[in-house]
């Protein structure tokens, strides 16, 4: 089974920072995320997706989603944004 390696890295990073329960991850604020040393924008996106998955009770689905599937999802969102852009 394919896995979301970025998601696993994000989860590992949060656990190492002390956010080791669903409640702790779901309750994180953006300020707390930004306070993590050396955090990147890509990691913030993963933290946000992980947080949404925790709140929805779909962590296994999130971690089991391939990066390829995520890229297709992002490309679809970008295409929708371009279609809805008013010039």
Walk me through the structure.
By secondary structure, the protein is mainly α. The protein has one domain: Orthogonal Bundle (DNA polymerase, domain 1), CATH 1.10.150. 70% of the residues lie in helices and 0% in strands. It is built from six helices and no strands. Residues 66-81 have a biased composition (Basic and acidic residues).
Topology:
Blueprint: H1 5-16, H2 22-26, H3 30-34, H4 41-56, H5 59-64, H6 67-83
Helix pairs in contact: 1-4
| Biggest beta sheet attributes | none
Distance between the termini: 44 Å
Report the helical percentage: over 70%
**Beta fraction of the residues?**
under 5%
- Overall residue-averaged pLDDT value: 81
Give me the secondary-structure category: mainly alpha
Radius of gyration: 14 Å
CATH topology: DNA polymerase, domain 1
State the shape. globular
Instruction: Give a count of the beta strands, DSSP E runs of length 2 or more.
Output: 0
| The CATH architecture | Orthogonal Bundle
What is the chains' assembly state? single chain
Region (Disordered): 64-87
Biased composition (Basic and acidic residues): 66-81
């Amino acid at each position: 089974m394919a896995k979301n390696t970025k998601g696993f890295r994000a989860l590992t990073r949060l656990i190492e920072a002390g956010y080791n329960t669903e409640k702790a991850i779901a309750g994180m604020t953006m300020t707390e995320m930004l306070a993590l040393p050396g955090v990147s924008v890509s990691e913030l996106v993963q933290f946000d997706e992980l947080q949404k998955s925790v709140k929805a009770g779909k962590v296994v689905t999130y971690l089991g989603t391939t990066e390829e599937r995520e890229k297709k999802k992002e490309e679809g969102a970008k295409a929708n944004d371009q279609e809805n852009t008013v010039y």
